[in-house]
Amino acid sequence: MLTTILYRSHLHDHVPVKTLEDMVAKANRKNQSSHITGILLFDGLHFFQLLEGPREAVQNIYQRICADARHHNLVELMHDFAPARRFGKVGMELFDLREHDKSRVLQAILDKGTSRYQLTYNDRALMFLRTFVEAREKENYFDIPLATTWDFITDDAQFREAEDVAASLQDCRFAFQPIIDPFARHVASYEALIRTPTGGSPQDYFSTCGGDAIYHADIQSKKLAFKMASALGIGEHCLSINLLPMSLVAVPNAVEFLLLEIEAHGLIPEQVIVEVTENEIISRIDEFAAEVGKLKAAGISLALDDFGAGFAGLSLLSKFQPDKIKIDREIISDVHKSGPKQAIVHAIIKCCSSLEIVVIAEGVEKAEEWMWLEAAGISQFQGYLFARPQLNGFPAIAWPEIK
Fold it and tell me: Any bridge partners for residue 277, and if so which?
């Protein structure tokens, strides 16, 4: 199967540019022996390469490229399949953009084409190439430092436990995980994550509920979340609670119940954030929107959780706008080296900026993910990189400090 991979990367500062010709000569021989063709562009700082060939051979070459210490911030822009090679007669062709006029470079690349159909820039791979030559996306080339640039120093000041309260709860527990602004060293909110008495997952907790019973259990459990947050001394910090969207519709007077329990435990609506996940189909959207209106009228904020993973993210945004959205972990994972994920995040940020919606990145586990997202314009984060959920308490937080 013929495979095409395109990537972009940064030349390391310590690598002399004069070594480029030798590097290309070796790559040319390697590509020819592996039946791989390619086009390599260089602008003095960034590489852009298109590789074509048998799937296994291309993937093997690409893995070696990823491990090459002469460049960094490697971003895979495209990984696709094609019916025929675009550049069948080329082992490795280098175009140094510092030495050529842009329009002439583009034509020279087209002239290298060996497809039986004349190459044009309607081809998706060549559109990527043209964008690089014309430097139309350079503002998004984030030169993030190495992960080892940072230490993550654990601060126990936020750590608290409430075993006495947990012991009085019969049917569930809550684990708390902070959402933070790392550079400001500020806790934006604590999310209360439902668990079984032994620390099992939300799926385990709700597995014994059938039909609408799951929605009643969902709403009732929040009484315990408020009780634990109060016992832990949440003070003026915000508290995020998760709800299945249909819980607001299927349970009569759900909003009124939440407001009574918030007051009963010494909290105020303005410090409570209701997170609804978009991975459940909302079958009664008008009724759901009406309940959301009640929440917001009472002062409770709304967050759309797992954005990008469910059924109706953009559709929901068109009907009502939450105060916050949390980008799903699947999009966040390795975002620093995935061009498609980066494009999605940029689009989400731009959309939410137009709507004045706060964007939160959840599930952040790697320093590189955090650095790229911070550079893209996100300031609030949640994930194992900073703190794991703490059963029956608030966890210690690992704040980043530059070495």
Answer: 305
